[in-house]
């Protein structure tokens, strides 16, 4: 469970969130929508601990972010980051990150990359990757440890039609496992409707549930 309580966020005099409260529950997929610049990415960063709210708290499974953990634990995250090491191959980048926790195997990495269609590119340097390949490598990194929580900023951007379908299948399988939470942002109503149990809208610095 992820609990947002009284979240307020400003950049100088630009108020992004005014007293947001929301609970993200297990076994549920959430889409966050809203116009450009409304705060979708900032909200994901606050949930992850990458950006601090000016007021309010984020609790992850009862633990307040900033006390035991500075960053969300057991989560796979893709928010235009991590920016991978350009001079390393795709595989070397994933492997280096996988070695931190050592819970996913080489086989896991290769299987996932095969599904995503970047296995052939894994031995190429990251700096040669196209936008779509970069997106897929970020998704592979977020998914490879089968985290409890998956947080994805615009996961379908830069993907071709077939890849969108593949990624939707992967995310649908992910959320059908017990006790998972998926939170993603999107501008595309098809993606939102295909994947989200709950659609959230950021408007006028508030977060609304779309019925
Ligand atoms: N580090 C920062 N410093 C100052 N302002 C910021 C910073 N990060 C975000 N903002 C501002 O916060 C607002 C929300 O940005 P955010 O990136 O969350 O929008 P978004 O809803 O994800 O937009 P898009 O749909 O274009 O991706 C914008 O006005 C943006 O300029």
UniProtKB/TrEMBL annotation:
Domain of life per record: Bacteria
Keyword Transport: yes
GO molecular function annotation: ATP binding; ATP hydrolysis activity
PROSITE patterns associated with the record: ABC_TRANSPORTER_1 (PS00211), ABC_TRANSPORTER_2 (PS50893)
Matches recorded under SMART domains: AAA
Keywords from the UniProt entry: ATP-binding, Nucleotide-binding, Transport
ABC transporter domain sequence ranges: 2-209
Organism of this sequence: Dielma fastidiosa
Pfam family, one: ABC_tran
InterPro entries the record matches: AAA+_ATPase, ABC_transporter-like_ATP-bd, ABC_transporter-like_CS, ABC_Transporter_VariousFunc, P-loop_NTPase
Protein name per its UniProtKB record: ABC-2 type transport system ATP-binding protein
């Amino acid at each position: 469970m992820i609990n947002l309580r009284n979240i307020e966020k400003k950049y100088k005099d630009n108020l992004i969130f005014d007293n947001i409260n929301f609970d993200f529950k297990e076994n549920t997929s959430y889409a966050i929508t809203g116009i450009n610049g409304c705060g979708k990415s900032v909200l994901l960063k606050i949930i992850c601990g990458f950006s601090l709210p000016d007021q309010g708290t984020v609790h992850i499974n009862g633990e307040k972010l900033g006390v035991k953990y500075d960053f969300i634990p057991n989560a796979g995250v893709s928010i235009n980051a991590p920016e991978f090491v350009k001079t390393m191959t795709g595989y070397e980048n994933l492997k280096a990150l996988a070695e931190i926790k050592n819970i996913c195997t080489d086989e896991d990495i290769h299987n996932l990359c095969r599904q995503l269609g970047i296995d052939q590119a894994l031995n190429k340097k990251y700096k040669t990757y196209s936008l779509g390949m970069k997106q897929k490598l970020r998704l592979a990194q977020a998914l490879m440890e089968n985290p409890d929580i998956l947080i994805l900023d615009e996961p379908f951007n830069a993907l071709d039609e077939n890849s969108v379908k593949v990624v939707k299948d992967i995310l649908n399988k992910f959320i059908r496992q017990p006790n998972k939470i998926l939170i993603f942002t999107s501008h595309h109503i098809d993606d939102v409707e295909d994947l989200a149990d709950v659609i959230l809208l950021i408007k006028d610095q508030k977060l609304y549930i779309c019925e």
